[in-house]
């Protein structure tokens, strides 16, 4: 051993302890992902307090189908991030849940029976088909009717327009629109909103210009003094963030990964921050951590601890 990390200390909880207090105890508890979650908290606080940092939030759209939507929405309501990169599913579920409802279900449900009763299953969330595809089709058609023919939008402009159309303070897109936080969706056609875009492009010639999104990311990265990212899940939203980060100095200066994916199949989703260092997507001296855990468990506590920390200073 070349370094003394300090003794493992017991977690001792008492009445009146805040989540922030618990995070500090987790940091010196020794094991296992608890210590990593506490480290994520510390890095997030430093990132949020860095006035020269351009902050990016990346997450996969499935999370918007859960109650975690409220946490993600509060993050952008509080302007914790300057840019969001996500998947088409985030737009799908935010739009659908703004005008309908999802139901608590079970991973062990009979999917054939669910289909017979016109339900979709997303993990242990049940979605009545009329509250998903039908709502998205109806509301997106209403949205398109407000646009001029031959409208061309980037995905972040589309997201802002959808947020204005939704007009609901529970909506993630609403707060991104209100606070003018760009929501970039590189895989925009991969979902129900993407299908509606294709459909209406045939009828009204509504088109998406992805190069406007890339131009925005290019400008923000080249102009950034420092960059940091909270990356929840993997896939295209994760990769798009770290891809563009290689053009911001030496890469991300702060990076928090939260995922349940493994790295040993060589997937991008499971790749640890240290691998991104080799690609110059994270700076060698960056503050980074990896939390292998379900984001629906981690993020509510992480977010609350950060709120408590920021409001105490």
Written account of the structure:
There is one protein chain. By secondary structure, this protein is α/β, with parallel strands linked by helices. It has 13 helices and 11 strands. It has helices at residues 19-27, 33-49, 69-77, 88-99, 111-116, 133-145, 155-166, 172-178, 192-203, 210-223, 235-245, 273-278, 295-312, and strands at 53-59, 83-85, 103-104, 119-122, 125-128, 152-153, 183-184, 207-208, 226-232, 252-259, 282-292. A 6-stranded parallel beta sheet has the order 7-2-1-9-10-11, sandwiched between helices. The protein has a 3-stranded antiparallel beta sheet with strand order 3-5-4.
Radius of gyration using CA atoms only: 20 Å
Q: Which stretches of 5+ consecutive residues score pLDDT under 50?
A: none
What class would the helix/strand composition place it in?
alpha/beta
Number of helices: 13
The average pLDDT score comes to 96
**Binned strand content:** 15-25%
Fraction of helical residues = 40-55%
Biggest sheet features:
6 strands, parallel
Spell out the helices and strands N to C.
Answer: HHEHEHEHEEHEHHEHEHEHEHEH
How are strands sequenced across the largest beta sheet? 7-2-1-9-10-11
How far do the termini sit from each other?
Answer: 37 Å
Gross geometry: globular
Number of strands: 11
């Amino acid at each position: 051993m070349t370094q003394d990390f300090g003794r493992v200390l017991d977690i001792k909880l008492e009445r009146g302890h805040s989540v922030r207090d618990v995070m500090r105890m987790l940091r010196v508890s020794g094991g296992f992902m608890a210590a990593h979650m506490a480290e994520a908290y510390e890095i997030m606080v430093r990132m949020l307090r860095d006035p020269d940092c351009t902050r990016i939030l990346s997450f996969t759209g499935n999370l918007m189908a859960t109650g975690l939507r409220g946490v993600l929405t509060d993050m952008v309501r509080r302007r914790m991030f300057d840019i969001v990169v996500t998947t088409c599913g985030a737009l799908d579920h935010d739009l659908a849940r703004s005008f309908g409802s999802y139901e608590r279900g079970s991973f062990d449900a009979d999917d054939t029976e669910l289909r017979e009763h016109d339900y979709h299953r997303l993990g242990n969330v049940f979605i009545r088909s009329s509250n998903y595809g039908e709502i998205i089709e109806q509301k997106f058609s209403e949205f398109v009717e407000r646009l001029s023919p031959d409208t061309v939008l980037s995905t972040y402009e589309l997201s802002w327009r959808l947020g204005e159309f939704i007009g609901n303070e529970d909506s993630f897109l609403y707060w991104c629109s209100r606070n003018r936080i760009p929501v970039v969706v590189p895989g925009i056609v991969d979902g129900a909103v993407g299908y509606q875009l294709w459909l209406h492009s045939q009828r009204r010639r509504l088109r998406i210009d992805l190069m406007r999104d890339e131009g925005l990311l290019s400008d923000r990265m080249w102009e950034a003094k420092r960059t940091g990212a909270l990356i929840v899940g993997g896939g295209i939203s994760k990769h798009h963030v770290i891809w563009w980060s290689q053009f911001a100095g030496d890469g991300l200066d702060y990076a928090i990964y939260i995922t349940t994916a493994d790295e040993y199949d060589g997937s991008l989703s499971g790749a640890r921050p240290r691998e991104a260092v080799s690609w110059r997507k994270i700076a060698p001296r960056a503050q980074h951590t990896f939390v292998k855990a379900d984001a629906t468990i981690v993020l509510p506590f992480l977010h609350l601890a950060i709120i408590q920390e920021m409001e105490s200073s």
